[in-house]
């Protein structure tokens, strides 16, 4: 990196021409990224210098600068203790927060930048604790060796722009490989969540995880049990929202981590024998996820991706070998919805997200009753009503669920779904399907029947809603007549 003393250990002569070229490219990207953030970063660094402390851009910020994808979230490390950091930053920042101060981190906002400044530290878990014990370090080298991967163990000391890379992170970054600064066993013992972070970075950055790191993940998979469900969920979300989630999920399954955090996924690898052939449900689910991602229009959609991944998790429990040699999975969507709910609650997802993902899993087979378009308008209305605000996602999930290699069959399914969407669009235009409700509201019902609020109003409302779904909209006169007719049968 120009104007930077490089502390990397590997001699330049050992690098191949190809490796040197890759490193040069990475360094050029980093320089332009660092120039962009320099006014804020250098100003902050000078304030630390004047107070007798050091400051360095560190970790993910340096990695992302080298990858040419540095955003406006900047991570710094310093030898100043949190109380000193507060004194320096308070008069300078536009806003300040101390939520992470127990872990040595002070957060602030300056202009358009969100900044975190963390005191040099080392943190480790004991064998049973879910929370790290924080102790402060005295040197940047001590701080870097405790970081998760070499590509996150680089720093740029400011304001002098000195590049610090004691673990050859730059070379690993150019080679797109994940290694740990110390032994993987030490790293994962310090914080077992790093095993999931390895899978997450594989998914986000399309990196390969070094064989010794994978081996340690397999060996230490049970250590993930001491990590809180919330932290596991957050890593899983970041993995799923990455550009290559299949890569991260495959690593979780092959390492045995998934057996402990998302056991329904490896359970999809059903044994198949020569007499009872059926689609590989595990591979099918990953392909459905890939295809759902291809259909996203406004960026990554976590609800859709979770539903795509989990839509068939009810199959192992419902598999039956029929007398004619076929394999059936009757009601796997209902069983799968219940399993989805249970797993997502265990991982502390929000109630709304649990409800949405489970509903999509439950509805993902509904279209297959559509056949060649023989559904009545009533059935189409019910499809829309049952999907509610999830209808667009259900369209995408249903289309993604076709992974057959038989082009004729795939085209027929696609045409059938095109037909269903066209019918929905026509009915929506004619009947305002998005807001299906009876033609009379509760006040109308009470007025027509001359009754007070109570359960009868709810029953009448439900009856009118059924009529609306079955027959489409009625004018007021017809709705009043239908209501009176129903009421006459209610004793």
TrEMBL record:
CDD domains: HDc, NT_ClassII-CCAase
SUPFAM superfamilies from the UniProt entry: Nucleotidyltransferase, Poly A polymerase C-terminal region-like
Keywords: Magnesium, Metal-binding, Nucleotide-binding, Nucleotidyltransferase, Transferase, tRNA processing
SMART domains: HDc
Region of interest: Disordered: 1-22
Pfam families: HD, PolyA_pol, PolyA_pol_RNAbd
Residue ranges of domain HD/PDEase in the record: 277-481
Cofactor(s) needed for function: Mg(2+)
Alphabetical list of NCBIfam families matching this protein: HDIG, tRNA_CCA_actino
UniProt protein name: CCA tRNA nucleotidyltransferase
Organism: Streptomyces olivaceiscleroticus
Taxonomic path: Bacteria, Bacillati, Actinomycetota, Actinomycetes, Kitasatosporales
């Amino acid at each position: 990196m120009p104007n930077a003393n490089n502390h990397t250990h590997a001699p330049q002569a050992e690098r191949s021409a190809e490796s040197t070229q890759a490193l040069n490219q990475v360094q050029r990207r980093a320089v332009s990224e660092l120039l962009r953030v320099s006014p804020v970063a250098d100003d902050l660094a000078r304030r630390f210098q004047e107070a007798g402390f050091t400051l360095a851009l560190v970790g993910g910020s340096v990695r992302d600068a080298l990858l040419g994808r540095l955003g406006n979230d900047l991570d710094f490390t310093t030898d100043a203790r949190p109380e000193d950091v507060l004194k320096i930053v308070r008069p300078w920042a536009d806003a300040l927060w101390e939520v992470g101060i127990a872990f040595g981190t002070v957060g602030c906002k300056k202009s358009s930048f969100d900044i975190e400044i963390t005191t040099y530290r080392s943190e480790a878990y004991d064998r049973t604790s879910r929370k790290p014990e924080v102790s402060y370090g005295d040197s940047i080298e001590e701080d870097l060796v405790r970081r998760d991967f070499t590509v996150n163990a680089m720093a740029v000391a400011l304001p002098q722009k000195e590049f610090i890379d004691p673990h050859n992170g730059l070379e690993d970054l150019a080679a797109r490989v994940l290694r740990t600064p110390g032994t993987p066993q030490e790293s994962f013992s310090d914080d077992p969540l790093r095993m999931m972070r390895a899978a997450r970075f594989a998914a986000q950055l399309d990196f390969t995880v070094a064989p010794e790191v994978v081996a340690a993940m397999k060996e230490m998979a049970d250590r993930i049990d001491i990590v809180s469900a919330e932290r596991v969920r957050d890593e899983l979300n970041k993995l799923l929202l990455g550009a290559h989630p299949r890569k991260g999920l495959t690593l979780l399954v092959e390492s045995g981590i998934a057996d402990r955090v998302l056991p329904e996924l490896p359970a999809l690898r059903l044994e198949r024998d020569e007499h009872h052939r059926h689609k590989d449900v595990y591979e099918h689910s990953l392909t459905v996820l890939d295809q759902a991602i291809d259909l996203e229009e406004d960026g990554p959609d976590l609800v859709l991706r979770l539903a795509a991944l989990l839509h068939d998790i009810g199959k192992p429990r419902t598999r039956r070998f029929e007398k004619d040699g076929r394999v059936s999975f009757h009601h796997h969507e209902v069983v799968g919805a219940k399993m989805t709910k249970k797993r997502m609650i265990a991982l502390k997802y929000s109630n709304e997200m649990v409800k949405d993902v489970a509903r999509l899993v439950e509805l993902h087979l509904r279209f297959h009753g559509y056949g060649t378009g023989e559904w009545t308008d009533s059935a189409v209305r019910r499809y829309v009503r049952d999907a509610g605000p999830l209808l667009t996602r259900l369209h995408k999930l249903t289309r993604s669920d076709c992974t057959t290699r038989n082009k004729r069959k795939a085209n027929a399914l696609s045409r059938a779904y095109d037909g269903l969407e066209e019918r929905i669009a026509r009915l929506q235009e004619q009947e305002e399907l998005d807001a299906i409700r009876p033609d009379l509201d509760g006040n109308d019902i009470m007025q027509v029947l001359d009754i007070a609020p109570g359960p009868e109003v709810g029953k009448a409302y439900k009856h009118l809603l059924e009529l609306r779904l079955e027959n489409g909209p009625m004018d007021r006169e017809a709705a009043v007549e239908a209501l009176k007719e129903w009421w006459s049968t209610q004793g």
